[in-house]
Design brief:
Elements: H1 3-16, H2 24-28, H3 35-43, H4 46-62, H5 74-83, E1 88-95, H6 96-104, E2 112-118, H7 127-138, E3 146-149, H8 152-160, E4 164-168, H9 175-181, E5 185-187
Helix pairs in contact: 1-4, 3-4, 7-8, 8-9
Length: about 200
């Protein structure tokens, strides 16, 4: 659960570019999409968007990457999937070096074979691109893979590649969002992922 770090970094970036603060609910809605996608409608010009992204990354690099909590049941679920032969790959719109740092510090991080995140310049930041890169790096086909995610962007990224998908209800998206995006299944708790 990276909400605290993400929302604080967004608020920091907006403050640094001189934009008025957004309510917490609005900040939480930014969790999932690429940074530039979220900043662009609010800030308009590319220069301000790039400044905001830089301020966001500056704070995330210093403290934001540590501002997270592990959802209950995740360590056990990850271990069970790994022990039963699943090859695990993290696909995230977070900056890839940051995602690597976060996962390396989690007790189950070593169970992930690959970590695919956004590039600093934003050239690879949308879920279809990220999923394609994950498939390429792991040498896996869409038919062999399953996307597990909590937002419509995860499900849409999977559907773009013809992958099966599981929407999880303990993250940032709602059951309605995941259903509307076309998640093949939805699960309410991590222990259900094994089945």
């Amino acid at each position: 659960d990276s909400a605290i770090g993400i929302t604080r970094c967004i608020a920091h970036a907006l403050e640094r570019v001189g934009h008025e603060p957004l309510p917490e609910a609005a900040l939480r809605s930014w969790i999932g999409p690429a940074l530039r996608t979220s900043f662009a409608p609010l800030l308009g010009c590319t220069t301000r968007v790039e400044q905001a992204v830089a301020f966001y990354l500056e704070r995330f690099e210093q403290v934001g990457w540590r501002e997270h909590q592990v959802y209950p049941g995740i360590p056990e679920a990850v271990r069970a999937l790994h022990d039963n032969g699943a090859r695990l790959c993290l696909v995230t719109a977070k900056n890839e070096p940051h995602a690597r740092r976060i996962l390396e510090h989690l007790p189950f991080g070593s169970l992930f074979e690959e970590i695919v995140g956004a590039t600093a310049d934003g050239s690879r930041s949308h879920k279809p691109q990220l999923v394609a890169e994950a498939l390429r790096r792991t040498g896996t086909t869409s038919a062999e893979a399953v996307m597990i995610g909590d937002r419509h962007l995860d499900i849409e990224g999977a559907r773009h590649h013809g992958m099966a998908s599981v929407g999880v209800l303990w993250g940032f998206g709602s059951e309605e969002e995941l259903r509307a995006a076309g998640a093949d299944r939805r699960v309410a708790e991590p222990a259900q992922l094994h089945a």
